[in-house]
Amino acid sequence: MSLCTLLHLILHIIFIFHQANAFSMNIHPIDSPHLQILPKSFTIKERHHFLRNISLSRAFYANKKNAKLLGLNSIHSSLSNVQRSYFVTQLSFGSQEPPFNPLVILDTSADQTWIQCAGCNPCFDLQKSFLVENSTSYSRLGVDDGRCIPKINYEGGCGFEASYGKGHTQGYLGTDIFNFNDSSGYFPNIAFGCAVKNHDFDFGGGAQNVIAGVHGLGVGPQSMLTQLEMDIKGRFSYCLRPDNGSSTIKFGDDVQISGDFATIAMNPEARYHLYLAGITVQGRRLTIDPKLFQLDQDYTRGFFIDPSATFTVLTNTAYVALKNAIIEHFKKYGMNPSAPSKNIFDLCYDKLPGLLTNYPSITFNFIKSPGGDTGEIELKLNQENVFGNFAVANGFCLQMLSTPDSKDGPSIFGAFQQTNFQFAFDVKTRLLSFAPKSCKDLKV
Fold first, then answer.
1. Distance between CA 248 and CA 17 in Å, rounded?
2. Which H, E and C letters describe 114-151, residue by residue?
3. Rounded to whole angstroms, how far apart are CA atoms 145 and 147?
4. Segment 250-283, tens digit of pLDDT
5. 103 Cβ contact list (under 8 Å, min separation 6)
6. CA–CA gap between residue 158 and residue 175 (Å, rounded)
7. What CA–CA distance (Å, rounded) separates 153 from 207?
8. How far apart, in whole angstroms, are the C-alpha atoms of residue 111 and residue 101?
9. Start and end of every Peptidase A1 domain (predicted)?
10. Distance CA 86, CA 387 (A)
């Protein structure tokens, strides 16, 4: 054993016996120019079509029935048929030197974390797959392990499988040492999937692709949140920047929320479902049946907070009510919408309002505690995370979408509308706290 490898293992042992109750993880927008994941040939319009399709695909696959019936190719994307997350992050694991540290997409609706491993057949395009033989701390997970749910037998050990539209992956579960950020310390015995049978996958980039798999932040038995429950106690928070920059997810004792914050109930087991009661524009509650936002068994309805979606997607009935209220508001200032065919988004204007105060106020009204305190909590959006000038040079568009071909939903609260808010999740108490904050001023 080389001296370098020996020193590396000693450091691992030191961190293993150091109880880490807090750590953080940087996340990066998929279209960040620093990552260069999207093709350089992408026009501005193609880029925003791609970001729009991420949100629509996540709305489709939040619906369990659509997940079975539809392929992602039914929503055209010129880049990828499995790229369905706005953020990517970097994981570092294994006892080899240097550690294997691939990029993975962040999926808040998935429980599993998995990467493509060497020996796959078929494989998707990837610069480098994980070679388990190089990590002396790697071991296969047995079927009797409590994290092996469902109990899939794969070559005598615990197996896993996951589907993303037409894409399907299968392989085996194993454990290794993980490090989320260089300064976070190491976590031993973390289970993740080795994908070795990958059908109809394409993360884009051809042979230069650097995205190796998926990092799930759901709450199932294989989730990192569950596996590290003793350390982080089911708590995490983030504050998304509005400038396409990197943000940070904090876990455990690092989760602190300050200022004038509010707390509402959530259902983390149902993909972080929130209890939305309605939407208010300029102090007037829109006429929307609250049942459209109530969770059902197949997720055909519901309202989910989802930073992996670029933009908020509303059930068509709710979206039309919101759109009409905005049109009515701007008519007071002599402003009429531009032709829909000119833009990627449905509601755009060719000129900006005369004053910032001429934008309508938009508020999401949440039930504080279903089954208990039925009072409501307001989340007031600001102009910067409702409207954007992505599509027209001197105008702006409503940066929300509607679910096509469906009157039921589901609806999702996307990353663009979450910017400049700090959100703190407590999975164990099933509570979500939020407060306005200038996220671009935070260090990452």
1. 25
2. EEEECCCCCCCCCCCCECHHHCCCCEECCCCCCCCCCC
3. 5
4. 999 888 887 889 999 999 999 999 999 999 999 9
5. 35, 37, 88, 89, 90, 210, 211, 212
6. 11
7. 32
8. 20
9. 87-435
10. 18
